[in-house]
Amino acid sequence: MTQEPAQTLRIALAQLNPTVGDVAGNMALAREARRDAAREGADLIVFTELFLSGYPPEDLVLKPAFLKACWVALETIVADTRDGGPGVIIGLPRQGEKGRHNSVAIVDGGKILALRDKIDLPNYGEFDEKRVFDEGEMPGPVNFRGVRLGVPICEEIWNDLGVCETLAESGAELLVVPNGSPYYRGKLDVRHQVALRQVIESGLPLIFVNQLGGQDELVFDGASFGFNADKTLAFQMSQFETALAVTDWHRDGGTWRATSGPMVHIPEKEEADYRACLLGFRDYVNKNGFKSVVLGLSGGIDSAVCAALAVDALGEERVRTVMLPYRYTSEESFSDAADCAKALGCRYDIVPISEPVEGFLSSLADMFEGTEEGITEENLQSRTRGTILMAISNKFGAMVVTTGNKSEMSVGYATLYGDMNGGFNPIKDLYKMQVYAIAEWRNHHVPTGALGPDGEVIPKNIISKAPSAELRPNQTDQDSLPPYPVLDDILECLVENEMGTDEIVARGHDVATVHRIEHLLYLAEYKRRQSAPGVKITRKNFGRDRRYPITNRFRDRA
Length: 558
Prior knowledge:
Blueprint: E1 7-15, H1 23-39, E2 44-46, H2 64-80, E3 87-96, E4 99-108, E5 111-117, E6 142-144, E7 147-150, H3 163-169, E8 174-179, H4 187-202, E9 206-210, E10 212-215, E11 218-221, E12 225-227, E13 233-236, E14 243-252, E15 255-260, H5 269-287, E16 292-296, H6 301-314, E17 319-323, H7 331-344, E18 347-350, H8 354-368, H9 375-396, E19 398-400, H10 406-411, H11 432-442, H12 460-464, H13 484-495, H14 501-506, H15 511-523, H16 525-529
Parallel strand pairs: 1-2, 2-3, 7-8, 8-9, 16-17, 16-19, 17-18
Antiparallel strand pairs: 1-14, 3-4, 4-5, 6-7, 9-12, 10-11, 12-13, 14-15
């Protein structure tokens, strides 16, 4: 018996950064990548889910003109493949006979070989696809140059619809999965486990190609990979970086196996979080056309980390920092803010707020007569700072960066129309102790692609001193909040894990403290609804992932 000759297939994976709504720009990216793949001798190039529209396109897909633009872009790419170069797998939204679909086109030789419509439409967390798309039908394999490819789309490998098993049973030889899978800490390990389950159940090798880039609050981290049928990792692409990787596959005895491909180190913990914040912030600023940013630099940890992220993302010449002192601003804060700006190399201005604050107090003196000073007067300081930063923004066209962390946003330790003013918050989904951790990491590392300097960019004193809003004499955050390690653990239990208060108390926390933090968490929902968008880092961020009512009388009391 003569053994079947071995065959090879060279597959390029396009881990690129499309922009939602920029159909022409995304098409240009795809065409350029295909030309690069052709020069590498690729037989096939694979793009990500909804690449031509950008992902997630949300309600843009309700516009017929938008769907038409995506289809016209696809037709251009189809025409390109008449040149005999690489075939193309690419995602787009389209209007079909049975509805509007999240689709993938498999294209070669100037023809559309197949259109795959996504069946499993996610409708949880950050996903809301059932609202705008209709379900497709169970797919079969597509014959691409004599190779039977199975093309599941993202969510179809995460659940139990049996798409991969059905493809295997109907003759698929290799699974190629376009994805739009956003980042949270540890997400790549989750993806690997999801993919491995499908490899085991189908008996087929699997290629997972993932989008790269920031889209509003989501960050797509790339980190595309593949598994052989024997469950070994075939290749691993970089995380948080655009890349075009060429992988070689060899078929012998009816089984495909990768014989070459990248094997890149993947960052972990603080490095991964910092780079996610960096990528999300850079793309938000650049994709929305802002030339520069401005932020209040108080001498505290949050604004220092945001300043470092801004300089790393945009370069020192596009970042302006402003110290906005009042009578309670310490000399230590003056020194720390100046040292931070100097270390980062960015512009640093000082704009005192005494006159406008005193003007507000004077205007309100008659109305406030007979009342005690307190939170209202403290918030006037914050709101004055917010007004000045917005004035600088209006005058010079610089987007205001807001700097509150997740711990503060959770319990309402933030002032509406004050320190919450701004267009974007790069640390919105980082708890306070995580902010300290990435500050320490940044002082010892320069992330790949960063435009900022090396060395200590966040002065040690900012990291070591007690955090304070400096809105009254000798104030510290712990005057009104538990120590941040305690607060963060309680909040993570309540927000990420949806634990009951009795379970949290059983972890060793004081019952009155737990009940108070839960009350503050619910009470601050109205503030969070008005907060600037920010990068999603945790499994459950405020906004897309956690949608609690503003009017809410529930409290967990046994």
